[in-house]
Design goal:
The chain has two domains: 2-174, no CATH class; 175-210. The protein is 50% helix and 16% strand. The chain is built from nine helices and seven strands. A hairpin with a 2-residue loop joins β6 (84-88) and β7 (91-96). α4 runs antiparallel to α5 (116-126), α4 packs across α6 (132-140) and α5 crosses α7 (147-156). It starts with a strand and ends with a helix.
Length: 210
């Protein structure tokens, strides 16, 4: 199922990205690697144990902004999670992670040292896009994880340092930078909802004219 920024953009005002993130079962990860090798498709494993495929073509845009597909093995606690079917890139019924799964994954990533994920999880909760109790339930299913400490840190606004988190205090503690980011996201959400309302009014006016 799709995770990361593409999934985030299904629940909040869309964000630009050059990377599509997927989570797959451990067995499917092995199958994918075998298929790529059979078809001579280059891939690498990065420091976060994600399988990365670079999308290559002759356009100037992809040379300037390289496109990537990244795949990571699902944690055991997420193997039974139910994806939400969405229409993405004009393709129907694409499996997308729920907001609660996204928050759990980002908290897990933050606990493993991926500092940017702390901000992503924080925004999903502050914009009230994810149910906190369900987030906690998902995180509790991630055995041997410090993700629940990251979630509590977000909810309380007090940094609860985990030994494996490698980030500066400014990124963890409330600051003017974080507040600015939150205000930007809220403004984007307001514009997005206003645009949707204008579209509904326009469609209604067209139907009445007909």
């Amino acid at each position: 199922m799709i995770i990361g920024t593409v999934a985030y953009s299904e629940y909040a005002p869309p964000r630009a990205t050059t990377n599509i993130n997927f989570i797959i079962s451990e067995s499917d990860c092995g199958k994918l690697e075998s298929v790529l090798k059979e078809n001579n498709i280059d891939f690498i494993w990065n420091a976060y144990q994600q399988l990365i495929i670079a999308i290559k073509d002759d356009s100037g845009e992809t040379k300037k902004y390289p496109l990537e597909l990244s795949f990571q093995s699902a944690h055991k606690g997420l193997t039974l999670s139910q994806p939400i079917p969405k229409e993405i890139f004009s393709v129907a019924d694409v499996p997308v992670a729920s907001p609660e799964i996204l928050v759990a994954l980002w908290c897990l990533a933050a606990s493993n040292g991926h500092s940017k994920s702390y901000y992503d999880a924080q925004m999903m909760i502050k914009l009230k896009l994810a149910d906190v109790d369900r987030c906690a339930a998902v995180i509790d299913s991630l055995l041997e994880s410090d993700a629940n400490k990251v979630l509590r840190s977000i909810l309380t606004g007090n940094a609860m340092y985990v030994d494996t988190i490698n980030m500066e205090e400014a990124l963890m503690m409330p600051s003017e930078l974080i507040q600015t980011h939150e205000e930007i996201e809220r403004a984007k959400a307001h514009r997005y909802n206003a645009a949707q309302e204008r579209r509904r009014q326009l469609c209604k006016a067209i139907q009445q004219t007909k």
